[in-house]
Amino acid sequence: MIHVYAAVKIIRSRRMRVQFAGQTALVTGAGQGLGRAIADELLKRGASVFYTDVRPEALEDVDVSSGRATPLVLDVRSERDWEAAAAALRAGGGIDILVNNAGADMMCAFETIALQDWQRLMAVNVDGVFLGIRAMIPLLADAAGRRPGGASIVNISSILGQKGMAEVTAYSASKGAVTILTKSLALELAPRGIRVNSIHPGFIDGPMLRHGSQRAVAAGKYASEADFIAHLVKMAPLGRPGTAAEVAAAVAFLASSDASYVTGAELNVDGGYNAS
């Protein structure tokens, strides 16, 4: 006889495996870090997933053995690339879930920012989201009526899109734009059955955090990468960096029919940072 608790765990596990069966997702910036974790999580839960990244070499290790993972080179700044992605999805039957994760960061004093560097950051973090959503709206609207809970767009913003931080002004401005874009689109697209929500990761252990720590040390602001990360972690009441898997689980929730009455929301995965 199976213990009741064990039976519940089995049922939940089976449900997770088929949660997105028959559905298609596209994840940008899926070559590494958060994007890879998000794409892997949706794949694990039954979705067919387009793993996209601007760097072909970052997609070489995508496991295609399931028949549901498709690597696709995509520069989110390119209108032509987004049109090609939409055409590929249309030919394959459409898209149910769009995750705008691709992003760039910048850490420096505001007055030292060159215009071209500002524009380069905004092109990835803001223009990329704009172009992606605009290209996918017709396909998502087509899927919305066939999918429990409607179609779903999940935008990866940041805690720095909610609160400021010195010398991260350009990044904060770009993520603030994503936050408000998400809310406005949630209102605009609700009549078409498309839910739009944002995830706000805190300090997540991964490539972006490591690159930031290296730059901080190189600039002479911290003695070591460990010192820099320890400084950030002190700002999170849970006292540790987050993991990519924790962010991916939050994305899966917002993308699923479990969140069918959730749109225009900001979901923080930040160890309590924004509450402090």
UniProtKB/TrEMBL annotation:
It comes from Rhizorhabdus dicambivorans. Belongs to the short-chain dehydrogenases/reductases (SDR) family. InterPro entries: NAD(P)-bd_dom_sf, Sc_DH/Rdtase_CS, SDR_fam. The lineage of its organism: Bacteria, Pseudomonadati, Pseudomonadota, Alphaproteobacteria, Sphingomonadales. Gene3D superfamilies: NAD(P)-binding Rossmann-like Domain. This is NAD(P)-dependent oxidoreductase. Signal peptide: none annotated. GO terms for molecular function: oxidoreductase activity, acting on the CH-OH group of donors, NAD or NADP as acceptor. It comes from the Bacteria. Coiled coil: none annotated. Keywords: Oxidoreductase.
